[in-house]
Amino acid sequence: VVADAAWRDEVRRLARERDAVLLAHNYQLPEIQDIADHTGDSLALSRIAAQSDASTIVFCGVHFMAETAKILSPDKTVLIPDARAGCSLADSITADELRAWKAEHPGAVVVSYVNTTAEVKAETDICCTSSNAVDVVASIPADREVLFLPDQFLGAHVKRVTGRENLHIWAGECHVHAGINGPELAERAAANPDADLYIHPECGCATSALYLAGEGIVPAEQVKILSTGDMVGQAKASKAKTVLVATEVGMLHQLRKAAPGVNFEAVNDRASCRYMKMITPAALLRGLRENADEVHVDPETARKARGAVQRMIEIGT
Ligand code: 13P
Ligand code: SF4
User: Could you tell me the residue range of the domain that residue 130 belongs to?
Assistant: First the structure.
């Protein structure tokens, strides 16, 4: 299947026929981003999924994102073009492991990053995404213990910004972001001293970025820790000629569209998420033709998870 004009016409026709809204995460292949009704970060897409009038949501992203849409809209049909599109970060904690962790910290508030399974969300008090994690944790009374999961790098970022000592962090990671490391970033920053650095907080190098700024190796105003959606916002206002981007490489497409005059370069051009890339033009076409793969969440699990997800979409920008 080639993503040509005939493919685009057929995808749009089938989407109309099915009363479907097409949502694409910023890490999707460029042709999938371009055909979607909305492209964005996890938080923006969750909000759109919750508000949409369409009877079918086609989620071009990974499984937990489609599950989140289903939790928010149990009466809608939610499709993911390939249900095998998982997430190594979401797989880094199970509901049983979370229950055991909660038992060690009775009374703690559980904050789960949206990259978790529906079963883990059902054991959670508030979900967050990278764009509102700090606001979510700041909304919790200072004397309450917090269990933050599953991402250790995002957790370390939130702990640093909020200065909160009673925040416990699960040791999970995303294999793509953990692989974007500090030495690589330092080398690229040294070779491009005028470049801005856009760093996703899931990256292994997020700490190094702040180190570079703290030591005055890179001016602090050039170092920006951002969610994928906030990167697009920054790009639109960018005065830098070059921006080094530390996140999954699919992000470069939206950034280049948002600011065509800026030279965006990946810090690590091998940082590609194989799960995100399972949503191919062929998979999207098949999904629309066959009404597949449908995402189901057990109604009781969805009911328990819904409050935590709703609190997430209400808090922060
Ligand atoms: P955001 O879109 O929330 O920044 O998340 C990044 C991510 O890794 C999702 O898989
Ligand atoms: Fe999960 Fe990482 Fe892929 Fe995002 S980039 S979907 S966190 S494995």
Answer: 90-173
